[in-house]
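Hey, why these numbers?
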Amino acid sequence: MIVPLNPDTETQSLEQALDQVLIEMLYASDWTQIPNNPLTVEKSAEWAVWRQQLRDFPETWIPSNEADIPDPPL
């Protein structure tokens, strides 16, 4: 999924804009990792893998005005 990054150029770098996007995505998917969520064990595991991909993404990202972030599980 291509995500445009629009940092506030006066106070925010591209890296900070990416971090903000990733944190928001992780926050929005926290529910997938709590006990007794409505997902199957397999689906929860898929979400766990995706969340780890988000955490690892900055290590391989080449700074630009967009980021090709892995798609979340369906």
About this structure: The beta strands are 2-4, 66-68.
